[in-house]
Structures are given as structure tokens and as C-alpha cells.
UniProtKB/TrEMBL annotation:
UniProt-listed Pfam families: DUF433 (PF04255)
Gene3D superfamilies: Winged helix-like DNA-binding domain superfamily/Winged helix DNA-binding domain
Annotated protein name in UniProt: DUF433 domain-containing protein
InterPro entries: DUF433, Homeodomain-like_sf, WH-like_DNA-bd_sf
Top-level taxon of the source organism: Archaea
Length: 93
């Protein structure tokens, strides 16, 4: 695992993520707080330091308005492009 302390940056898709990685703050929060995974497990699965997991969680909770806006933008994008997706149940042989 990298021993380099990572910063939270906004370089990819305008969403906060670990510097040098595509792992977003929102993804890490979902793994720990929604799925109930231990921070060490998340760190091990994604080859990051456990401190990076805590940095992401801290960033998420220190920036609630920003994170709500990101989630709103993500949900709007899903709704805007929903008509372009296919439900597997609608596919016939």
C-alpha cells in the first residue's frame, strides 16, 4: 500500500476524489456508511491507506452542501439519460 498521504482533490469529473486515484469521496462513504464495510477493508480492497478512507469520510461530513449538490447533479444526470438505457427484462430473444 502506498505510504504517501493523499489529498482530496477535484480533478476528475468535478467530484472530490483521492489525489492520483479515481476513488471518489462519495464511493468511500458509501462503502463504509451504506454497505457497512470496515474502513480497513475498504482500504485493503482498493490499495489505499486506511487514513485515506478517514480523510474521505471527514471531507464528506465537513462539506455537506457540496456533497448534496454532487448527489443532486448525479441524480439529474441519471434522470436525463434514463431513456437511453435498456432494462434487461425488456430484452427479448
Amino acid at each position: 500500500m502506498s505510504q504517501m498521504a493523499r489529498r482530496i482533490v477535484r480533478e476528475l469529473h468535478d467530484e472530490p476524489h483521492l489525489e492520483g486515484r479515481r476513488i471518489t469521496v462519495q464511493f468511500i462513504r458509501a462503502q463504509v456508511e451504506e454497505r457497512g464495510l470496515d474502513p480497513r477493508t475498504v482500504a485493503d480492497r482498493h490499495d489505499i491507506d486506511v487514513a485515506d478512507v478517514y480523510r474521505a469520510l471527514t471531507y464528506y461530513h465537513d462539506n455537506p452542501e457540496e456533497m448534496r449538490a454532487i448527489e443532486h447533479d448525479r441524480q439529474s444526470a441519471v434522470e436525463d439519460y434514463e431513456h437511453l438505457t435498456t432494462d434487461p427484462d425488456d430484452i427479448t430473444d
